[in-house]
Sequence to fold (850 residues):
Amino acid sequence: MVDKGVKQRIRRKLEEAEIGSTILEMKNITKTFPGVVADNHVNFDLRKGEIHGLLGENGAGKTVLMSILYGLYKPDEGEIWVCGEKVNMKSPRDAIELGITMVHQRFALVKNITVLENIVLGTKTLKGVFIDEKTAEEKIRRLSDKFGLEIDPHSLVMDLSMGERQKVEILKALYRDSDILILDEPTTMITPQEEEALFETLQKMVKEGLSIIFISHKIPVVLRVTNRITVLRNGRVVAQVYTHETDEKDLAVKMVGREVLYRLPKVEVLRGKEVLRVEDLWAPGEEKGVFSLHGVSFTVHEGEIFGVAGVAGNGQKELVECIMGLRKPFKGKIYINGKDYTNKFTREIFDAGVAWIPDEKDRGVILDLSVAENMVMKTFYKPPYSKGLVFHEEECLRFADKVVREYDVKTAGVKAPVKTLSGGNIQRLIIAREFAANPKLLIAFNPTKGLDVNATEFTRRKILELRENKSAVLLVSMDLDEVMMLSDRIAVMYQGEIAGVVEAARAERSELGLMMTGAKKLDSSLWAS
Amino acid sequence: MVPIQETIVNVVGRGVMLGTVLLFAAIGECFAQRSGFMNLTMEGIMTLGASLAYQTVFLTGNMGLSIFVAMAGCMLISFIAVYLNQRLYLDQVVTGMALYIFAFGLGVFIHRLVAGGVTGLKFIEVLKPVGIPLLSSIPVIGPILFNQNILVYVGIAASVAAYFIMYRTHWGLTVRAVGENPKAADNAGINVYMTRYITAMLSGAGAGVAGAYLIVAVLGNFQELIVSGRGWITIAMVIFAQWNPIYALIGSYFFGSMESVAKYVEVTRREIAITGGIPYQFFWMVPYIASILALVVAFKKAALPSALFKIYKREEAISEV
Fold:
């Protein structure tokens, strides 16, 4: 883009700018993807020393806007000005050289190299032709101490927890002497305690004159940490307010366009007989000799939502896959309605009355097949859809037509390929298919991941309805608030074990948070039933 | 010297000489695969390199020049391969296969065009061993490692240098990061595509030297099947070597020695006495069987670079979040 001299001049201006003066402006930014306008003439500005919240739902255009600033996307239209000079970001290198760094929601770290190597990656800390590890380590330790980001520079990134990885990402930015830090949904992968530590670090950074852009869809979090808030809805800026002049309700209306019910009505349902029983389940991990599940046992009953909380990567995926017959347990038993379903084919497990909402949406549907075909994905080989070797398409279309209307799936028609549907509608399709057969047991794995508020509410309502109809639900979710809102009992998973089970009515967020990091473990005799 | 020791020294020494073919190709391929690009044209471009080297010596008599001509030709094909993959987003395997066939054919075609297509037309004199004073008089090790042609020494030096580049320099770190997580590398301000262009060209250059080496140091003559699977063995061996240039050196000498053993059995025609009735041709299978076994063992624990074969597209890479 601009030559080195101009970059250095801008850097100097950034450093010398007074606290509170505008250092960054994005004017009239428009970015379209095939069929979607991600950002529609967005204006955004950042002042020195502030934490500016960028609030919006999934798909509102927050990440895209910041990816444009970071040089990852090219805008169709619009300009970026830093300290009164127009700049053209061709790649992250340009942004970094101007003192801008972005920390992605899914961290961008190389897992099989050390923390130190990740931090010096792309910089020039040299001693002759070799990497100067000593100088790098000193600088990292200095920054860690200053901002409260303790981390061993020589550990491998793959051995770190999500919270620690986030620290590495922030250290990366500090190591590059960044003036502007973009944090994309920094609170989704970490525990409540790690959240507190992060907020403290951010305050220290702001005091040092850094400016932070804080992307989030969580209103309470944004209210807590920011000075100013820009609200995006469907790619447009709908409001820009000072944090002290607004409140939760006001922001919700701005973000979603209507009032949002944060508490769904939950009726009393009597707990019935046991439906799912998992006994001493062990499962192998990705590496040889390492177990991802260490003797997990629990039961789920009729009319009950059993929530499993925990930081991603603590064995939740393996647990769900073992139950669904997608992964072979090392030992242990899984009973559904009293019958042994360990190591059975997934189809047999479906036939036992199990429904499942997978966490990756493309695991629940085949994107290139039509809505109708996806609707009968679990039953197409049975009558009335198939008789002998013949597949009766009209039956399938009739069924699809019916459920599409019933569940209000917005599609151009039942013959349209699923990939033409929005994320929320794909979710409706999955729920329609899974719930159509009145399941006895639902396995829901991150059911609202990546959904907007409407689709999230719909999904949660449906799960609660299922509970009212006396079905059992196993809800495995990384979203602690979701688990706390829906569940009757909550288990916390930590490193392949259940750290404790508590009654939802008596659950404390902070206590669950401690269990999520392994800092607290309940005696299993307290909950074993 | 005792006869058996002399035999071992001869066989292994020749193994080192033959293994150097693989070594040159492997060093570049280590970097290419580590950066996420598998240069599958290897077998073809080595043939092309050998052909170009032979024609150059045939026409000019200049061995040094022949190496550079071979390098240039192989780098060009590698450039096309990486361009199709990184710029036009075509699949590495498909384009690699197509260009392997193309380069192979081109090498043979050029040979027919220039040297008249008569195999065995003219043998060129291959490089002579140059003993390193003192070192070459160490028993056993001396004659094996330090009484070789000059390019063997170049190969050893290159693999040591490659090792330090891979693990101690910024560029080596860049290569490893790009092959493991291109998105992270991109976010750290690294040009993912440029890194892969460079590593692919490097593997082309290595293959060029390897092809030329076959002519100027091993055979002195060009034949259609001159490479005879060494390109494929290189690709497999690099995985076996865990993309570490020093392991690649050991692996190359191992495979070279396998080849040398087969040759030894063939030349001395002692198949009945030594092998208990097994025809010597069976020994020619040894390097190939060894490479299959090596792959089976290596693949079990090999942590392939996560982004190997994967096409990195920036706007797609994050829109999935």
